[in-house]
């Protein structure tokens, strides 16, 4: 069944190209393009004369020159495109599906069964349960550590990162607050303020204060400075 579907998709994808090759529309050659260009120049000269941009004498001389070029081009001969012009299209009609089929055979696995949606949901739930257990274990371990230990502060930073990665901004902000209490860092302060803002849906007094302190203590070239200034621009 899968092979029938693949064949139908290949036919549908190549149909426009087949129609183009079937119609064999004659491509415009350089001779025809030159004739069209000179005719357009004549029309442009007539418009310039009507608008008063050129005088009658200048118009007449220009028209004679264009007509001379038009006659010279009209006398040239150019071979019409033959059937060889459609050969690349016909070749593509065969080569593209064949190449796609070969690549699929080499790397595809059409006989593998599909994964049921229920299995996907179960896997996601199992992964979430595992993440919850690890987060709980990390919190329990940090609660037993010395708050003044630099390792404890780094643990709360990592805890905040983990919670933010799961989209749990209130818990991320709580972990980062603890890390900031141990040692203030402008970048971490901005991340904490952003988490608070995202959780609340607006810039709160606490997040605004963190933004202002971070701006005051950060170097002038801090990459997040424009964002922080924009955050507190409308806060009174």
Total helical elements: 10
What's the CATH architecture of the largest domain?
Alpha Horseshoe
Strand content: under 5%
Total number of β-strand segments?
0
Q: What is the highest CATH level, the class of the largest domain?
A: Mainly Alpha
Count of structural domains: 2
**Termini Cα gap:** 66 Å
Low-confidence segments? none
Briefly note the CATH topology name of the largest domain: Serine Threonine Protein Phosphatase 5, Tetratricopeptide repeat
What does this structure look like?
With 236 residues, the protein is mainly alpha-helical. The protein has 2 domains: 2-107, no CATH class; 117-233, Alpha Horseshoe (Serine Threonine Protein Phosphatase 5, Tetratricopeptide repeat). It has 10 helices and no strands. The protein has helices at residues 2-23, 30-51, 56-74, 87-107, 117-143, 150-165, 169-182, 186-200, 205-217, 225-233. Helix 5 runs antiparallel to helix 6 (150-165) and helix 7 packs antiparallel against helix 8 (186-200). The chain is flat, with a radius of gyration of 36 Å. The model has no long low-confidence stretch (mean pLDDT 80).
Q: What would you say about this model in short?
A:
This protein has 236 residues and is mainly α.
What's the arrangement of secondary structure elements?
Elements: H1 2-23, H2 30-51, H3 56-74, H4 87-107, H5 117-143, H6 150-165, H7 169-182, H8 186-200, H9 205-217, H10 225-233
């Amino acid at each position: 069944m899968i092979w029938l579907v693949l064949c139908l998709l290949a036919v549908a994808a190549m149909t426009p190209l087949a129609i183009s090759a079937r119609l064999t529309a004659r491509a415009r050659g350089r001779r025809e393009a030159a004739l069209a260009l000179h005719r357009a120049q004549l029309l442009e000269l007539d418009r310039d004369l009507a608008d008063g941009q050129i005088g009658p004498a200048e118009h007449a001389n220009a028209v004679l020159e264009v007509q001379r070029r038009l006659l010279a081009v009209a006398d040239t001969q150019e071979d019409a495109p033959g059937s060889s012009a459609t050969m690349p299209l016909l070749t593509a009609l065969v080569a593209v599906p064949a190449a796609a089929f070969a690549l699929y055979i080499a790397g595809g696995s059409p006989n593998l069964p599909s994964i049921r949606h229920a299995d996907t949901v179960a896997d996601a739930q199992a992964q979430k349960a595992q993440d919850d257990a690890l987060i709980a274990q990390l919190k329990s371990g940090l609660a037993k550590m010395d708050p003044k230990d630099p390792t404890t502060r780094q643990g709360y930073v990592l805890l905040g990162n983990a919670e933010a990665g799961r989209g749990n901004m209130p818990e991320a902000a709580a972990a980062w607050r603890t890390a900031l209490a141990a040692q203030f860092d402008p970048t971490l302060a901005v991340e904490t303020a952003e988490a608070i803002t995202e959780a609340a849906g607006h810039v709160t007094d606490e997040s605004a204060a963190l933004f202002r302190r971070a701006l005051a203590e950060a170097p002038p070239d801090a990459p997040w400075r424009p964002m922080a200034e924009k955050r507190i621009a409308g806060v009174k």
